[in-house]
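Quick question, first post here. What does this chain look like in 3D?
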Amino acid sequence: MNETEARRVLDPLAGFDGGDLGAAFARVLSPGAAVHLAFPFETMVGPEGLADAALVPLASAFPDLERRETIRMAGRDAAGAMWVGVCGAWVGTFAAPFLGIPPTRRAATMRFHEFFRIEEGRAVEMQALWDIPELMMQARAWPMAPSLGREWRVPGPRLQDGLRIAGDGARALEVVGGMLAGLSRSHEGVAAMELDRFWHPDCAWYGPSSIGSTRGIDGFRAHHQAPFLAAMPDRRAFLENGHFFAEGDFVGFTAWPGMAATLTGG
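> Answer (accepted):
Ran it through. C-alpha cells below.
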C-alpha cells in the first residue's frame, strides 16, 4: 500500500457533516482496532468501543456536527508500518452538555490530531488527541490559569497545502530529527538547543489550548518552553513508543504514551 492509498482509507471521515458518526468510523477502523484517545477516554477496542465512549456523546452534544480536516499525510515509520496523520477540528452548535462541560448554544470548535496505523486497507490502531480544554474555554468552564500563548482558531498550513501533500519526506524528517535532538539538550541551556538552525525567524508554534500559540523563537521560549521546563523538571519522553513518518514537507509523530512528568513548578 502506498501513501495515496493509505490516505484514502480515511475518506469516510472526510467532510463528515451529519449522519451516523460511529458508522463512519466503522468503515475506517478494523473491528479489533486498538483505539487510544487521550483523557478521559484512554484505551478502547474497535469502532464500537470508540462510539460508545466518545462518538455518541460528541454527536449528541453537537446535533449539526461537522469534521473539517486541514492536514492529512501518510508515511512509514522506522519499522515500516504505514501511518496516516490527520489534523483538523470538530465544528458545530454546542447544544447539549459534553463530558460535563455546559453547552454554549453557539457555534463551537474542538481541534483534533489523530493518527491511524493502516494494514490491508483498514486502520488497526488509532492514537488521538481531542483539544477538550479548547471547548471548556469557549464554555467559560476552564478552571485553571489563562494560557500564556494566544488562544484562537488555529489556521491551516501557510500554503494551504495540507490536503494535497506529495513527495519524499526524507529531508523534512532529517530537519525535524535534528531539531528534536537539539531540544533534548535543554538541560545544557538555551544556546545548546540551537533552535535558530532549524526554525524560521517567523515560525508559528500552535500549542494545545491552555498553552496557546506563539510566534517566533523568542515567543516560543517565553510563552511555552521556559515555563514548561520550569514546571515539569523531571519530564521524560518515551521515544521507544514513538512513530515518526514524513511526506513532502510534513512530519508526523505519535506515541502512546509519549511523555510523563510531575507538575512541581508554577
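The first strand starts at residue 29 and ends at 37.
The domain at 3-138 is CATH 3.10.450.50 (Nuclear Transport Factor 2; Chain: A,).
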